[in-house]
Amino acid sequence: MTNKENEKDGIQEIKDLGNSDLSRRGFIQGIGGAGAILGLGGKAMGAKAPKDADGNIIPGFEKIKEDPNASKGWKKVSDRKIKVGIAGYGLCSFGGAFFYQSHPNVEVVAATDLDPARCARLAKAVGAKKTYPSCEEMIKDKEIEAIYIATDAPSHARLATSALLHGKHVASAVPAVFGFKAEEEAEDLFNAVKKSGMKYSMNETSTFHADLWLKRKQYQAGALGKIIYSEGEYYHDFGPNGLPGYNPKNGKIDVNGWRRGLPPMWYPTHSNAYYVSITGGRFTEVSCLGTPGLYNEHRENQWKNPFGTEVGMFKTSEGGISRMAVSWDMKNAHGEKGRVYGQKPHNPKINGDRPSLPPGVGAGGHGGSHGQLTNDFIESILLDRQPTVNVSDALNMTVAGVIAHKSALKGGEWMKIPQYDL
Question: Are residues 171 and 291 in the same domain?
Fold first, then answer.
């Protein structure tokens, strides 16, 4: 389908990286993204892209040429340099993959990872002079103004809450909260943001996909009216050997880590962004179903989760419906994609280009979103504004998924979703 056909139908389909129908500039930034990890961003991640247990490059980290025009039109908002500490290198080397070390308004002063070898690699990649044995210790450093938390998912909320209460701005990898204690963690995190007055941003990569950003700009301009129906999908077949994750039992990254048997809807934000990040609206109720997983990890895991695929129907705050799906085992299904249908047709005259990036900051992986997320977070501090994915958006996306999994365990029972609005 061409852009003109999409415009005629009033819908822009959000497709996989490399198959998207994008604007010219958006396309260049999109394909330029992941290459930064091996090109300009090579110093951040080393020579090899991260791979899963079957030896395949993890989606979003493919080697693609960087866009030389990404900084065209960029305007500096301040000469100030934010002193940043980075936590976590892990399977995907995320601590070094978001261009903090290249941003003109950032000085990376400290790094940490629970594994000493990974900690050393992270410090070298981002140019940090100080290292700490844990994020808990790094948070106490009074020199640090902001912390990027790229640790394992179960630790995100706890570390973010602690950092906020220590007076640090926080950017966190997804999801914002996790697992059985997610609703309790959400209350703590939300209250920490309100009490501290610090900025909190969740690095939801789908938010800055070129096509999603285009729809966001369309919606904000009133071109679409209310969203009647939307869909979001995050498909990533882990395969029979699973996807490695941090294992607290041995301190290693292996297939018996936190990702083993992970309920799909506990990692929902890559799909849920296709409504929340477009509209700023909220999911209010959900009915979800799951299918038994194909692999051994779905038959025995620490989360007592039998599902490899979960699909939820969500009611939205503007009276619409959203279908959101996450799958770890469907064949020939991959990527982060979505569709949006409004009351009005798409307006081709509205500029939907993503913001320009500072010189030296690459677009990065996951559809050219990495650099955008970092720049958005840093500018939210410098300009004293809310990040694009603030705590309210982050918690609605994440907790909606947690409630959806509960619904799936009960055979699709409709459940209300808590609201966390600043």
Answer: no
Query: Which are the contacts of 141, defined by CB distance < 8 A and separation ≥ 6?
Result: 85, 109, 110, 130, 132
Q: Are 189 and 200 in contact (CB under 8 A)?
A: yes
CA of residue 92 relative to chain centroid, distance: 13
Contacts of 91 (CB under 8 A, 6+ apart): 50, 58, 243, 244, 245, 246, 253
Same domain, 99 and 231: no
- In a domain, residue 360? The reply is no
What is the residue range of 73's domain? 23-203
Q: Kindly report the backbone phi and psi dihedral angles of residue 301, in degrees, each rounded to the nearest multiple of 5, phi listed first.
A: -155, 165
In the chain, the number of structural domains is: 2
Q: Determine whether 58 is exposed, middle or buried from the number of CB atoms within 10 Å of its CB (0-12, 13-18, 19+).
A: middle
Phi and psi at residue 273, in whole multiples of 5°?
-65, -25
Do 229 and 328 fall into the same domain?
A: yes
Could you give the CA distance from residue 11 to residue 13 in angstroms, rounded to a whole number?
Answer: 6
Distance from the first to the final alpha carbon of the chain: 39
Which candidate, 141, 126, 277, places its Cα nearest to that of 206?
A: 277
DSSP, res 102: G
pTM for this prediction: 0.87
Contacting residues for 18 by C-beta, under 8 A, at least 6 apart: 31, 62, 64
CATH of the domain at 134: 3.40.50.720
Q: Do both 36 and 121 map to the same domain?
A: yes
pLDDT average per 10 residues of sequence, the chain (422 residues): 36 34 32 31 47 63 62 92 95 89 98 96 97 98 98 97 98 97 98 98 97 97 98 95 92 94 98 98 98 96 98 98 98 94 95 95 92 98 98 98 98 98 92
Asked whether the bond before 175 is cis by omega within 30 degrees of 0, the reply is yes
What the block records as the tokens of 222 is 């009133």
